[in-house]
Specification:
The complex is a heterodimer of chains A (48) and B (155).
Chain A lengths: L8 H8 L13 H18 L1
Chain B lengths: L1 H19 L8 E10 L4 E9 L5 E6 L6 E4 L3 E6 L2 E10 L2 E12 L8 E9 L2 E9 L5 E4 L11
Parallel strand pairs in B: 6-10
Antiparallel strand pairs in B: 1-2, 1-5, 2-3, 3-4, 5-6, 6-7, 7-8, 8-9, 9-10
The chains are: A mainly alpha (48), B mainly beta (155).
Chain lengths: 48, 155
Amino acid sequence: MTSYVQDCASLINKISNKEKGFWFPITATDDMRKDVFLNIAMSYYECN
Amino acid sequence: MKTTLTAMLLGFAISMTTFSQTNDDFIIRYSGNGSVVLASGETIHGKVDFVLQTPSRITIIPEGQEKSAKYKSDEVKAFTVDNKQYFAIKMKGGDVSIGNTTSFAQIITPVDAKIKVFLFENQQAVLVTKSYYISIPGDETAYGLTDTRFTPLKK
């Protein structure tokens, strides 16, 4: 996923540091995954 | 006596309601004023009707007309109804099990976001399933949440 947001350093940091809301375990439910992807999409939107 | 009679009448009314239910009562649809943007670029305003049992079709009664027009998802770019915006997108993975399928899905990120998240709702009998799809720039297809390319730390 990080390759799609390379031009947003703050977002890369959040993902790399596994900040809450920007990372999920492999056992995550669809709801957890959806929340993380929404956070990533919105952060990237605000970053650009 | 009066109370008993009222209870009996109420019970009768409830049982009548139960017996008069048909499968149509369970069909979930979003209807209201909206617009449909065709693949040609033409925009039609009117009364939009979107039924979750047929997520690849949209019906609209254009303003000033009585007859409805029906469109398949490959004829339409997007439509709005009830302040929700839907796009015709190709989806892969998730609950869409047969290859690339084009259906209408509600966009839940801003329309101009580079990474978009869509909500796809589908009804089969009385069961409504909700699944989410992600699209990235440069790829027409939206992928299910479990697609490995979207694991956050994957490069």
